[in-house]
Amino acid sequence: MPPSLIKLFVTASSVVAGTVTTVTTTTVDDNVRRYHAVVTLGMIDGTAGTTTIPDTSFLDDSGTAVAAGALPVLPVLPAGGYYSLYINGVLQEGDLSALSTTELVIASAALLPGTPVIIETHDYSGTISASASTPALTVTTTMNT
């Protein structure tokens, strides 16, 4: 009889069991501030079609004048933030205005002197979130020959 190759026969099986526990803690910090001003004739530019309210024309909720360059600039994502603009008590569309540290520019000259303007800002830059995972996995492998 000619020689033949003897092959090893092996079987293996594995079992993975266990859990992964994940805990996420999120603290939302919505820093809300409001500022109000009254439109004057000098703020309205009929030629440009805009109304520009300088920072120093605004008062905060306590009635304190806003310092030069101190209007809030809201963070971009992921921290996030936004502002709402109310003209004469009516919420305005977002694209109607632009807010910087030095002024609020409203894309309209249709305002009248004496019109109240309110900016309400929401700043989420103080929001924190943390996740922790605890794996408890067991892997068992059995080989049979």
Describe the structure.
Strand 8 and strand 9 form a beta hairpin. The chain has no helices and 11 strands. Helices cover 0% and strands 52% of the residues. The radius of gyration is 32 Å and the shape is rod-shaped. The chain has a domain at 30-125. It is mostly beta strands and 145 residues long. The strands form 3 sheets. A 5-stranded antiparallel sheet has the order 5-2-10-6-7, with no helix packed on it.
* Main pleated-sheet profile: 5 strands, antiparallel
What's the β-strand tally?
Answer: 11
Low-confidence stretches: none
Describe the global form.
rod-shaped
Query: H/E series, N to C?
Result: EEEEEEEEEEE
Which band does the percent of strand residues land in?
A: over 45%
Strand order, sheet with most strands: 5-2-10-6-7
Number of helices: 0
How many angstroms does the end-to-end distance come to?
27 Å
The helix fraction, in percent, is under 10%
Protein name: DUF4183 domain-containing protein
InterPro entries: DUF4183
Pfam family, one: DUF4183
Domain DUF4183: 52-120
Note the topology.
Elements: E1 11-27, E2 31-38, E3 44-45, E4 50-54, E5 59-60, E6 81-87, E7 90-91, E8 97-99, E9 103-106, E10 116-123, E11 128-144
Pfam families: DUF4183
Organism: Paenibacillus lutrae
Protein name: DUF4183 domain-containing protein
Brief overview, please?
With 145 residues, the protein is an all-beta fold. The protein is built from no helices and eleven strands. Helices cover 0% and strands 52% of the residues.
Which keywords apply here?
rod-shaped, four-stranded antiparallel sheet, five-stranded antiparallel sheet, 145 residues, 11 strands, mainly beta
